[in-house]
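Hey, I'm writing a tutorial for new members on how sequence and structure tokens pair up, and I'd like a real worked example in the thread rather than a made-up one. If someone can provide the structure for the chain below, I'll link this post from the tutorial.
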Amino acid sequence: MDEKFAEALKLRIIPVVAIRDAGHADNLADALVRGGLPCAEITFRTEAAADAIKIMASRDDMIIGAGTVLTVEQAKQAVDCGACFIVSPGFSAKVVQYCLENGIPVTPGVSTPTDIQTAYEFGVTLVKFFPAEAFGGLKTLEAVSAPYQIMRFIPTGGIGPNNLLQYLSHPRVPACGGSWMVKSDLIANRQFDVISRLAREAVELAGKAGEALP
């Protein structure tokens, strides 16, 4: 596993960011660093994504990945901009194959045993469980993951302060993805002090779950 991505997982929370204005990228990075959460998954849900990745990945104090990657072209663009890991909402064989062939950490989205089986057959053992809460939360995760003891999961979708600890306490959940501390409106309204506070509170909450199993 890429060293930087491994460091991001140790934080146990990966902020999932949809940023509309790349001009806010540096301030957002500053806010996350102050909050003790120096990583982010910048999603390709906005036109500012590539520029934001480039700005934030150029810093020595941030670990930046790209999310909502739907195509190989987006994966290439993200890596060219400095992203050190790729996340997709579903399982794309083309994206996964490209990342594996080029040594890029990739976390494809799964929600069913078929998805998990496909990832397993590609040799991918760390996947994104998405959308976590909409698909039944921990109860569903435990059920669909039971036959796949080698697999680990990053639940994303509906994760917040009210359920983060429960997810992180699962032995095969090294980290969760969440957007509550980096909501688009907070970024757009330049509420970076709020982002820092929410990030700090998230880190403190995650610390109560202890460290994930290797």
